[in-house]
Amino acid sequence: MLRSSPRAVLALTLALAAAPATFVAQRAPIGDAIRDFVAVDAPVVALTNVRVIDGTGAPAREGQTLVLRDGVIAALGPAASTPPPAGARVIDLAGKSVIPGLVMLHEHLYYPTGPGVYGQLGQSFVRLYLAGGVTTMRTGGNLNGYMDLTLKQRVEAGEAAGPTIDATMPYVNGVNQFVQMTNLTTEERARRHVAYWADEGATSVKAYMQISRAALGTAIREAHARGLKITGHLCSVTYAEAAALGIDNLEHGFFAATDFVSDKKPDECPGQGRGQQSLAQIDPKGTQFQTLIRTLIERKVAITSTLTVFEAGMPSRPEPPGLDVLVPQLREQFRRNRERTAANPANIMPTLLPKAMALEREFARAGGLLVAGTDPTGGGGVIPGYSNHRQLELLVEAGFTPLEALTIGTRNGARYLGQEARIGTLAVGRSADVVVIDGDPSQRIADVRKVQMVFRRGVGFDPQKLVQSVSGSVGLW
Description:
Elements: H1 6-24, E1 38-40, E2 44-52, E3 61-69, E4 72-78, E5 89-92, E6 97-100, E7 102-107, E8 110-114, E9 117-120, H2 122-131, E10 134-139, H3 147-156, E11 164-166, H4 187-200, E12 204-207, H5 213-225, E13 229-232, H6 239-245, E14 249-250, H7 272-280, H8 287-298, E15 302-305, H9 307-311, H10 328-342, H11 349-365, E16 370-372, H12 386-397, H13 402-408, H14 411-417, E17 434-437, E18 451-456, E19 459-461, H15 463-468
Parallel strand pairs: 2-5, 2-6, 7-10, 10-11, 12-13, 13-14, 14-15, 15-16
Antiparallel strand pairs: 1-19, 2-3, 3-4, 6-17, 8-9, 17-18, 18-19
C-alpha cells in the first residue's frame, strides 16, 4: 500500500476545498419536460434594487444587485456600485427580497393515503417543494426504493422540475409492522442493506423506531465507511445511545426521545406516546435535559425540527396551508383525522408542542446544530412547499427571530450536508439558488409565503405554474 506524504495530503485537501466552486459553475439544464415552468432562461441575470437576506443571520441589506452567471453568484453588492453586466437579463426587484434557496432535511416523496399506507407522490411533490423555494432537500425516509434515486437523477438532468435531492435509502429498521419496510434482524443484514442501496446511488441513510443498538451501530459504520451520513427517527434506541454509536442526526426535535422513560428497556421501543409523556415533564433547564444536549453537542449530532407534522394534528390550530392541491379524498381524510384527534381526551400535543419548542430552542442556544424539515406524514395536512414556509413560522413562534429561523432553514441545512461552501447562503461563488419574495421575511416571517420566483442553479422557475400543474391532483402521482 502506497503512503502519501504530509505535503501530498495537504495538496489534496486544498484541492478538495476548492472543488465546490467548480461543482456549481454550471447552469441547471432545461429539458423539454420542464421548459413550461421556466420563467428566466439566460446565462447572465442581474437582480437589481433588491433587499438581500443572505442566510448568515446578518441584517438585511437594502438596494443591492445580485448577478447570476452560469449557475453561480458572480457579483453581489450595492446597486450604485454593482452595475449589471452588458447583455444581462435585468430584473428590477424594488420592494422585494431575496433569500437563499431553502435547504430542508426531513422531506418525503410520499404521503398518507390510507391506514398505515403511504402513496408515492414524488412527481407532484418535487414541483411543490421547488415552488415553495426549496432548492435542496433530503428525503428523510424512503418507502419506495428507486423513486427517490430516479427523481434525483431526473432533476439533475433537467428532466424534472424540483430541488437538488439528497436521496435516502429505504429505512434501516428492526422487526416492525409497517408493510412498506423491511426487517433487519441481524447486524450483517443491516450492513448488506446499507451497502446495497449505497451502491445503487442512495446518498443518505435513515434508521427507524425498532432498530437495535447493534444493527444501528453496524449501519452507522457502513454508512460512514462510504462517506454517507445517517439520521434516525428512534424509539428503541435512546438519543444518548445513538450519539455514542456515532449517529449524525436525530429527527423530530426531541419528540422521539425515549431517554427520559423511567423503565425503558434496552433495544425495546416503549411506544412514542410514553416517550412524549415523559418529555412533557422535562425541565429544559434541568440536569437531565442539559446533560443530554451536552452529549449531543459534544458528539456533533444535529437535531431536525419538524414542528409542522405535530401542529397538523392540533385541531385548535388553523387548518394547514395548501390542502387545495390534494385530491378531494385526501382533503376529507385529513379533516376526519383532525376531528378524531379533537375528540381524543388523551391528546397531549397542546401541552407538548410548546415544551418541544422550548427544548429545541435550548439545544440551539447551547450551540447545537438545529436544522429544519416538515415530514408530510402523520395524519396528513403537511403539504410540500407550503409546510416549509409554516416550519419557519413555527420556529419564530418557538422563540427564534425571523433571521434565525431563515438561517436554520438555509445555512444550517447546508452545514449539516457538508455543502456550506456551495449552498445555503448568498455570496459570490455560491450556487445561484435564490428565492425572490414579495416582502421582507427578515421582519415578518409570514412574508416567506409570498414566493415570486425560484432560481435553482441560475434558472428561474415560476412557482405559480409549478403549483397549477399539480393542483387538485396531488394524491394521484
